[in-house]
């Protein structure tokens, strides 16, 4: 098998820039992948943020101006992880330079920005673009998706998809760009966490017809760098009560994105219930999948049972990891990169792919409808 080398550059050497750089170093764990990425370059306006990358031998370029990376013919693919207000400009520049782009969510600060990015893609079809969303690559999430696709739910009753954080329960936590509308966007927590909650529902075809948004701005000031109170004007929590359709049947779909969910640390939850079956997965118990069934219990008779399965380590792209071992966040990042580079190479086949630009635009339309709904106090069509 011929393996094609792909040179990767990172713009934004913060939390996610480092996470992705580390995940790519585990590439040999993937079995028979057609592509071998090499992280060769990194860019950040803060020189100190790039110091960490000295530990990665293949990184030979460090720059504070991303134009240097875009002008380098040796760079094939760019991962961009910066503030939301910078997405449109940097993503469109990457696309117009003809590079592949794995773009961080929410894919532009709002729907106008997301559509401008898609317009640039239309002008440059040579640039293969996908949006970051790694949680569906947990094996338990994949099992839940396959369960729904199998038809095992029967007539659907309801579904829930949530992404829950507790990082903002501490009101003394400094403000930061993610808590300011100008940098994070009007959609607030939905811009931050919404793609996590919507990737799977949209992939299952559950595009909502209407949205009733319940949004909360719970903490209105936070300390700035000097400890003085600064305005914190983003939505902290958003619950969206939606109407979607599965197998021709309308059903209530609820998505939750919360920064203030006490006790939850990056918890991704997916649950779908039908008359014939049900499935639940939460990254809180990362190897446990629950399946609903009616079971003939010896000595008792027919009972309704939630059964538990340990999902093991294998996700969309096979790895050398023992099938019974555990899977974690950094594995999900590796899987997302495996499918991104495989799809760019034309080798994804029927596997579950990374979130598409079309799905990202749709999330922004849903967030807009949720804000309008919250303001009007009624459900709004998407
Ligand atoms: N997929 C996930 O699970 C996940 C998790 C966290 C954040 N994110 C997303 O990743 C993106 C970045 O978030 P983060 O938490 O890594 O942010 P961060 O603040 O930790 O890092 C952003 C970095 O970008 C740098 N930067 C700013 N302007 C720049 C420019 N013009 N050129 C180059 N670098 C520049 C900053 O100096 C900083 O080091 C956001 O879109 C966020 O929503 C995704």
TrEMBL record:
Keyword entries, A-Z: NAD, Oxidoreductase
Chain ranges of the Gfo/Idh/MocA-like oxidoreductase N-terminal domain: 6-125
Annotated ranges, domain GFO/IDH/MocA-like oxidoreductase: 144-242
NAD in keyword set: yes
The name this protein goes by in its record: Gfo/Idh/MocA family oxidoreductase
Native organism: Agromyces marinus
